[in-house]
Amino acid sequence: MGCGTSIATETQGKSMETAMKAAVLIQRWYRRYIARLEMRRRYTWNIFQSIEYAGEQDQLQLSSFFSFMLDNFTQLNGNGPDLISQLLDPLVDPWLDRETCYNQIHVPESYTGPRLSFPLSVSDTSALLSAFKEQQTLHARYALQLLYETKKLLKQMPNIIHLSTSYIKDITICGDLHGRLDDLLLIFYKNGLPSADTPYVFNGDFVDRGKKSMEVVILLFAYLLLYPDSMHLNRGNHEDHIMNLRYGFTKEVMQKYKTHGHEMLKLFQDIFSLLPVATVIDGKILIVHGGISDQTDLDFLSSIERHKVKSALRFPRHSVGQLDIGQSCRQAKRTRSTDASRPSSSRSQSKNQGTPSLRSDSTPHTLQVPFLDSLSSVPAPSPAQHEREWKQIVDILWSDPKTQEGCSPNTFRGGGCYFGPDVTQRLLLRHGLQLLIRSHECKQEGYELCHGGQVITIFSASNYYEEGSNRGAYVKLGRELVPRFYQYQVSRSTRKLTLTQRVRAAEGSALRALKEKLFAHRCELMAGFLQCDRNNTGSVSVSEWAQVLESVLRLDLPWRTLRPHLTRLAPDGSVDYPSCFEDMGPGNPLPQVAPNLAETLFRYRTDIEIIFNIIDKDHSGLISAEEFRHTWRLFSAHLGVDINDRAIDDLARSIDFNKDGSIDFTEFLEAFRVVHKLDSKDQHLSGKMDGEKC
Amino acid sequence: MCTRRSERLSTRSTTRPTAPWTSGELVRRQAAQEIGTIIYSLGCFPSQKDLHDFIAKVEEDHTGYIHLDKFLPAMTKVLQEHKFPPISEDLLLQAFEALDKEKKDYLDPEELTKYMTQEGEPFTQEEMEEMLTALADHRNQIHYKDVVSQMTIKPDK
């Protein structure tokens, strides 16, 4: 009452107002801070994705290289490296049973892992779960039997599996796992183990990239054998033996199973090609790994022999023959060898395959076939049966949805198509479907809807690019067929990482990868810069810098935003472009090698590794010096790189360390790893917050 | 930045199963988020209300889409007029001090939470959790003086 009270109230009022103003200020500031982080997270994401897809594109270019090699070097009469015979090796029909010799494998007393008994029971799958949680490896004897049984089962399955929700409550659909055992275990924990009451569909890409691909597939196959009516696996683009050579599954198998790995890999090759390619629920929901194209025809897809498409990266053989221009005798030879190599299948449907027709059509249009750094024009073969089948499957496994209408080749990945909402609409209408569920692309939240809700992307490998980069998710469908999403994230540390720490870690990783890309294209980039900088001042404008990068690297990235991380500015605001390459240097002292040879080797490390892996049939890690020389000569000839024979010989000699004529190519390739000189400065996560750079 | 970005929709994060997706509202909310991110990255410090006003001006008839041809001139104007100027370190400190009623030089999580979630333009639970994780030290106290100097963003060159 009186003045005292009113002053107190006024002061109180004022202080409340101040508090409110203060709060607003802090909120504004903080939100802005988070938005900056979001920006960094976004471009980090872009970098990872671009590089990932560029890698896949390289992969497909590599396979075109193989095809051309086949055509041009068949004449070598055994003088060529074993690469040729490897690629020419007849596509063995998986219908022919390989020797089942796992019974003869001795399991020592000391083995404490699961001892499976077939047919499998719940105790077997439980034993597998516990064993894998304890980091144990399943003995080869049981692994092999598991794989044989899986193959037998898959042979009986149709190309497209039809499921119904009438007798079950909910179906759970999971996306890419990529060898992440933790994510699979987390899904089982949250959602329940597969059983008659808990049906699952796993939508491909079980292997590659992650370190536990073997464990993941063993579990998936075990549950498949145990509950064949409730467990369903779709093929993904990584269920492909050539992809496995590049992306880690082959290596993992050989490391975990030194003696029997080779046999397992052959089995995997068969199994992967025998996996069904699509699942349909209640005739309304289509589930495929990648997507669709405007050519996708589910009826045709049901009728083909899916196992004939071993790999997206081996073009249909006879069409390769047709690409061979102007050498008719070679063509004739090829026809004979192709025919002889194709074993007679016992399946009636193969009757219509017959001899590939080798009509010499004067084809109206040309095919642009990329190989490595260039494009070649070749008359397009007429679409023969095999090629149609190959394309149907590749489209299903490799396509991505996009917002624009229409259907165009997926040049980003190098295979499959980009399909627009109209393509989706048309397909769904044609087959009476209402929804397309697919995977194949990593999504921040583990899932994403597009095409007006008609397409769902589901991705189940959390932290795919880096710790904290994304969540994983799975989707459940009940009888009403309304999708419900469940997210999760595997966390390696017990302490919760802040957003800042996660962004920072991922960003660091992405930037390193990007810098390596720059380094790998150093010569080309410098040439580009010098074109803009005629007076050799050492600087170009920011626009020019961005343009050069984009045209050489062809990664659709926000270069201007990334500039501060990649290069310095000169005092006048222009880009000091030589500083792009300052941070990178060769790791181990290189064997005596000319700089451009080194750069080429560095850039094509992965491709070369794949080629060597193919030559190295017994996966010993060694090839002969002669094979090395031949391969390298062929490779560089196609690259158009001018490397003289002396340089190659010297190189071969210098890396044949024990002078026994064989080269450990893993060691050799290690030499071409680069290091980041600023590594030590960048790494510690000191404090929780991160001052802005620049 | 290309038009592709403003067209792309990404779903909001949730920790519980989401209801079937319906268009309209969700789309508009995301537009606000995306535009906010862009504006913040350009060095501006708008409030939520500022953002909503801005979006209302440039949005394409409540579809949730924002075209570059409308956005660019509006944004350029904002930058030229310094409409949403940055917050200086001093001002930020004063703000924290205003909330620190007991003048103890730090805030308890409860105090901060109360203000951030009840006053001004309240934080969502997610935003609050993230802020606390980031700012609180091992004693679970927010020593704002240290935090502010670490976090203040220098004006872009």
TrEMBL record, chain A:
It is an enzyme of class 3 (hydrolase). Its EC number is 3.1.3.16. Residues 351-364 have a biased composition (Polar residues). Residues 603-638, 643-678 form the EF-hand domain. It comes from the Eukaryota. Residues 338-350 have a biased composition (Low complexity). GO terms for molecular function: calcium ion binding; iron ion binding; manganese ion binding; protein serine/threonine phosphatase activity. It catalyses: O-phospho-L-threonyl-[protein] + H2O = L-threonyl-[protein] + phosphate; O-phospho-L-seryl-[protein] + H2O = L-seryl-[protein] + phosphate. Belongs to the PPP phosphatase family. This is Serine/threonine-protein phosphatase with EF-hands. It comes from Scophthalmus maximus.
